[in-house]
Amino acid sequence: MDSSHAAGPAADPADGADHADHADQAGPVPGTGGPRSEGTRRAILGAARATFAARGYEQTTIRAVAAQAGVDASMVMRYFGSKAGLFTAAVTMDLDIPDLRLVPAGDRGELLVRLFVTRWEDPVHGDEMIAMLRAGVTSETVAEQLHSVLGQLVTEPVAALGDDRAAERGTLIAAQLLGLGLCRYILRFEPLASMPADDVVAAVGPSVQRYLTQPVG
C-alpha cells in the first residue's frame, strides 16, 4: 500500500492563478475535479508519466509523483484516488482510437502498426506506453489496464468492421505489437532498435494485415 496517502486534502493551487497558464491546453483532463483544477491535474499526469516510465509501476509512489509535480500528495489522491487510478489516467489520456472503416482494407495493418510506433516514439506519450510494457509483466493491475487499452486501440476497431472473430484477431495483433514494442524500445534489440520508423512499419505491417484478413482458429 502506498505510504503517501495523506490525512486530508491540501489547498488546491489550481483554484487560484498559479496554474492558469495550463488552462488553454486542448483536450479533457482525466481525474475528479472541474475546469479550475485542470492545470494541477495536467501537472500531476505529466509527472506521473515520467515517473512511471523511469521507475516502473511498483517502485513509483504517490509522494514521488507529487514532488515531481510540485503539489501535495493529498492532491494526487483527491483527483485520482489511488496509484492505480493515477496510472490508468496517465496511460489512457488522449488515446487516438482508429476507425478502420475509414481506411482501405489493404492498408489497415500498416495503419495499426504506424499508430503504435508513432505513439511509442512520441515525446509526450512514449513514456506512458513504455511504462505499461515494463510494468505489465509484473503487475496484475497494470496487465489488466494494458489489456483494456489494447482492446480500445485494436479489438474494438476490428469489431466495428463487423468481424465476428475480432477478439481472436485483436489478441494476435496485440501479441505482434507488444513483441515489437518490447524488442525495439525496452530490450533494444539491434538492428530493430535503430531502424527508421517507416522501415519498421513496412516490415511489420504485412504481418498485422494477415491477422486482419486470413482465417483464424
Brief sketch in words of this structure:
With 217 residues, the protein is mostly helical.
Description:
With 217 residues, this protein is mainly α. It folds into two domains: 13-92, Orthogonal Bundle (Arc Repressor Mutant, subunit A); 100-213, Tetracycline Repressor, domain 2 (Orthogonal Bundle), CATH 1.10.357. The chain is 58% helix and 0% strand. The protein contains nine helices and no strands. The longest helix is centred in the C-terminal third of the chain and has 21 residues, at 166-186. The termini are far apart.
Query: The CATH topology of the largest domain, please?
Result: Tetracycline Repressor, domain 2
Number of domains: 2
Helix content: 55-70%
Indicate the low-confidence ranges by residue numbers: 1-11, 13-26
Strand tally: 0
Q: Identify the quaternary structure here.
A: single chain
CATH architecture of the largest domain: Orthogonal Bundle
CATH class term of the largest domain: Mainly Alpha
Tally of helical segments:
9
* Percent of residues in β-strands: under 5%
The major sheet is characterized as:
none
- Straight-line N-to-C gap: 42 Å
Order of helices and strands: HHHHHHHHH
**Residue-averaged pLDDT, rounded?**
83
General form: globular
- The whole-angstrom Rg is 19 Å
* Structural class by helix and strand composition: mainly alpha
